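ok trying again, last paste got cut off:
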Amino acid sequence: MSTEDDVLATIDEAGLAALGAPGPEEALRSLVHRYVDILGDRQAESRPDALKPGEQQYFVAGAFIVSPDQRYHMLVGNYGFPADQRRLLVPVDAGNPGIVWKTKKPLLLENTDQHGEFRQYLKTSRMGSAIFAPMIWKGEFVGQIIMAAQARYTMRPVDLKGLIALSRLAAALWIAHGGPAWLAAEYPPADGFYVGRDGLE
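nice, full thing came through this time. structure:
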């Protein structure tokens, strides 16, 4: 099956699952947990220099939603993040999520070692490859969906293309399930994991 077919099937499956979701985070999670299975080169880890000593391939994903006070990106509906980072909060203009917020454009980092602005916000390790796609609703930037992998060159242009298509659905799901009202009640989270502009490195 081609990547395009996979993305279309994911949109269909996630859309059906989201119809019965009890809230906006569950709706986004239904999408995130599906696109993790179809995006990324699953052979990347076998390439020379894809992994440094002690590293192993794994994936993380989720939505970074802009907080009501416009100060942070807050992690929602994540896959693969440590439990105590389920409410990770990153300064809204920091790192690569901040670049996506400023430009409202998607971003591909095939090898994060080649991007000096990359910051580690994940507790467990630095990721080697990442993609970001903005969630735009009626011209307003509400957040972004992301995916990252430990192995360098896991994320390719075709994966970014798929994530961009899925970001349209993510924005619609967020609004349809009352995301802004949910966020107003949830923020600031009692279990917030705040990181500084320079990350955890």
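cool. Residues 3-192 form a domain with the Beta-Lactamase fold (CATH 3.30.450.40). The chain is about 35% helix and 20% strand.
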